[in-house]
Q: What sequence folds into this?
């Protein structure tokens, strides 16, 4: 609220005092009073804002601590029991009898130990946040203590979110890395520019999560933007997080009612990237077609060669161009194809490739995933989950966690049903 000048009557004026001197003193008195009143007003306002900030911070901290106290002890007890059971299995099992099974048990044990350590760290950080809050209550003037407690609570909240998500991501390939393949649609240069914006969005998302995406392939368009790009995310649960991104991402430049006046399409495919082992899938050479889709001159101008591998019975095709040799790109393309076929077999509930129904395979371009509306209002509409976000710029800046979380929760609901 703006400060107002307040005029107060002073002592009776001296008749022998000159009018100019009286006016000067009067103006000085008025200005001094205005300054003091304005200073008090600003101080009061800042104090009020700080009190509101303290209440808000305190509430957020208390909510996180309560959540941690409810979840962490039970989760820790459960995961420690699981770790003990796996240790007993190793003691009772002859590791030399079945090396593959032994390796599986050891990997699960390592995961359990890592999870137990993370939960212990979570408990410690929650206790730390609680202690700092108690200290801040004693020294209420020290606002920085509340800020310190709030920072600690953010770390706790992040650890809790990751633990809960790891429990929801229970699909057969959710723990694997992810290969994100982005392709511009047929909308000309607008689609190519839009494809590059999505590429930056995914790279920023990974960076915000503390990970780094490896851009292994990037096919530039002649008038700006990209025709296609491939990013590899080599961290656990990348596929589980990103699998919901598969499909068509529609940029709507202008929308009039229900009619999309200007729309640009980009197809995004997500393929598991096996971190520890190669895909355990045998494919007959007779069912494969290997080719180099680029002209020889363009292929030679690259560091390696672009290799495309097609599975004849299903028509599925994957390629690789980011490696330094033809052979390395062939292996990479074949591994991507195997991973893709494993996902399709799992989705169709079949155990071998020969039982995959090619007609039932849903192509990336057949399923709309998300709409990004630029005009007249800027917002993001997730078609799969129904979630709408009003801050388009924030989403394009890599803040896609709410969209990822909504997809994971919708998957969990479908499993429950």
A:
């Amino acid at each position: 609220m703006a400060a107002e000048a307040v005029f107060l009557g002073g002592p009776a004026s001296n008749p022998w005092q000159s009018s100019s001197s009286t006016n000067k003193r009067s103006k000085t008195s008025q200005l001094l009073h205005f300054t003091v009143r304005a200073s008090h007003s600003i101080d009061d306002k800042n104090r009020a804002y700080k009190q509101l900030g303290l209440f808000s911070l305190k509430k957020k901290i208390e909510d996180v601590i309560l959540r941690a106290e409810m979840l962490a002890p039970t989760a820790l007890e459960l995961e420690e029991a699981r770790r003990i059971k796996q240790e007993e299995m190793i003691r009772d099992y002859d590791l030399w009898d079945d090396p593959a099974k032994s390796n599986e048990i050891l990997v699960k044990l390592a995961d359990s130990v890592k999870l137990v350590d993370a939960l212990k760290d979570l408990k410690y950080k929650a206790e730390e946040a609680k202690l700092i809050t108690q200290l801040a209550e004693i020294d209420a003037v020290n606002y920085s203590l509340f800020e310190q407690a709030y920072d600690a609570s953010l770390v706790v909240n992040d650890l809790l979110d990751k633990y809960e998500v790891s429990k929801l991501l229970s699909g057969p390939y959710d723990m694997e890395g992810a290969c994100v393949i982005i392709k511009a649609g047929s909308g000309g240069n607008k689609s190519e520019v839009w494809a590059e914006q999505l590429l930056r969005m995914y790279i920023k998302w990974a960076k915000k999560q503390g990970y780094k995406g490896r851009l292994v392939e990037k096919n530039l368009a002649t008038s700006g933007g990209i025709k296609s790009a491939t990013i590899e995310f080599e961290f656990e649960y990348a596929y589980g997080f990103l699998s919901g991104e598969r499909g068509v991402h529609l940029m709507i430049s202008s929308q009039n009612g229900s009619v999309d006046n200007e729309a640009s399409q980009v197809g995004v495919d997500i393929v598991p990237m096996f971190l520890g082992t190669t895909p355990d899938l045998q494919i007959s050479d007779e069912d494969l077609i290997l080719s180099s889709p680029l002209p020889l001159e363009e292929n030679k101008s690259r560091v390696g060669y672009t290799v495309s591998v097609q599975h004849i019975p299903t028509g599925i095709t994957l390629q690789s161009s980011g490696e330094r040799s033809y052979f390395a790109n062939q292996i990479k393309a074949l591994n991507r194809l195997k991973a893709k076929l494993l996902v399709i077999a799992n989705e169709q509930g079949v155990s071998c490739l020969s039982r995959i129904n090619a007609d039932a395979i849903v192509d990336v371009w057949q399923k709309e995933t998300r709409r990004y509306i630029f005009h007249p209002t800027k917002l993001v509409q997730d078609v799969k989950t129904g979630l709408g976000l009003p801050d388009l710029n924030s989403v394009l800046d890599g803040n896609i966690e709410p969209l990822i979380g909504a997809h994971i929760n919708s998957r969990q609901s479908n499993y429950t049903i």
Notes: The longest helix spans residues 19-92. The mean pLDDT is 80. The chain has nine helices and eleven strands. The two ends are 55 Å apart (CA to CA).
